[in-house]
Amino acid sequence: MPSRPPPIMYVTYEGTSGSRFDRHYYVEKHLPLVMRAWQRHGLESATAFFPSDTEAGTLVICECRFRDEAAIEAALGSPQTPQVMADIAAFTELAPKRMRLTSV
């Protein structure tokens, strides 16, 4: 029986080309903070993608790969999550949207 691929949580930020979003801070500071906070709970990787067509409204897509579903729950419920969420104000005023993908 083939093993199931690890679950993925996508975090997106929707805005306009005029919305404040500091890409450099996001990649150099925020994503390492996310890894430090959640890796101990089962986060395996976090990668940012920046769509070239910002007219569509999506300014960034972050792909977070976790060991399993329990790891997502553990990370989001961890004592480190408030620090991760508080750091958002350092690079944008936009609210993140989360979406989980799991295999059937």
Helices and strands in order:
Elements: E1 8-14, H1 23-38, E2 43-49, E3 58-66, H2 69-76, H3 81-86, E4 96-101
Antiparallel strand pairs: 1-3, 1-4, 2-3
User: Would you state the CATH class?
Assistant: Alpha Beta
**CATH topology grouping:** Alpha-Beta Plaits
The counted number of beta strands is 4
Query: What is the total number of structural domains?
Result: 1
- Beta content comes to 25-35%
Let me know the largest β-sheet: 4 strands, antiparallel
In the predicted model, the low-confidence regions spanning at least 5 consecutive residues are none
Please identify, by name, the CATH architecture: 2-Layer Sandwich
For the largest beta sheet, what order do the strands appear in spatially? Answer: 2-3-1-4
Helix run count = 3
Order of helices and strands: EHEEHHE
Percentage of residues assigned to helices: 25-40%
Shape: globular
Structural class: alpha+beta
CA radius of gyration is 14 Å
Give the CA-CA distance, first to last residue.
13 Å
Mean pLDDT, to the nearest integer, reads 92
Q: Mind explaining what this structure looks like?
A:
- With 104 residues, the chain is of the alpha+beta class.
- The protein has one domain (8-99): Alpha-Beta Plaits, CATH 3.30.70.
- It is 29% helix and 28% strand.
- The chain has a 4-stranded antiparallel beta sheet with strand order 2-3-1-4.
Compact overview of the structure:
The chain has 104 residues and is of the alpha+beta class. It contains three helices and four strands.
